[in-house]
């Protein structure tokens, strides 16, 4: 973005303006898939689905398991959000604003591997389970940390 002397948080506020934001992630390194990022008041219900992946008993809290440096996507009511597959990790999560694309996240992990044919008789289903969620590293939250720890080695982010 071309905002002079602006912070990552200001860029985040400019781009992630609603509680549910349409977004796109890269599937199998080439295919664009539609999803929605859940923010603000919508984030807790989205993140809650991560608990199904924890082995019980555990003393890990939801905040420790999915800290606020993660974006949550999938399971948007009224939409058929795509869900990532094993192997999609590291792919971009981006959104389009005014005919430009902005990367806002990097896919980290998901609650369900919808491409696992042993779980899903149809292979890569066109309808992922409603409880499936994906978690992406929020680039706006990680860039200040990178700048702090890498200093001069990361000048291109200034």
Overview features:
19% helix; Peptidase_S1_PA; globular; sushi; glycoprotein; 6-stranded antiparallel β-barrel; alpha+beta; Trypsin_dom; 158 residues; 4 helices
Topology overview:
Blueprint: H1 8-15, E1 20-27, E2 31-38, H2 43-48, H3 62-65, E3 70-73, E4 92-97, E5 100-110, E6 134-138, H4 139-150
Antiparallel strand pairs: 1-2, 1-4, 2-3, 3-6, 4-5, 5-6
Keywords: Glycoprotein, Repeat, Sushi
Domain Peptidase S1: 1-151
Organism: Ameca splendens
Give a quick summary of the entry.
Residues 1-151 form the Peptidase S1 domain. The chain has 158 residues and is of the alpha+beta class.
Uncertain stretches: none
Adjacency order of strands in the biggest sheet = 1-2-3-6-5-4
Overall pLDDT metric: 87
The global form is globular
Instruction: Give the ordered list of helices and strands.
Output: HEEHHEEEEH
Largest sheet: 6 strands, antiparallel, barrel
Query: Which structural class best describes the helix and strand composition?
Result: alpha+beta
Strands, count? 6
The helix content is: 10-25%
Euclidean distance between termini CA atoms? 12 Å
The portion of residues forming beta strands comes to 25-35%
Cα-based radius of gyration, to the nearest Å: 16 Å
Question: Tally the helices: what do you get?
Answer: 4
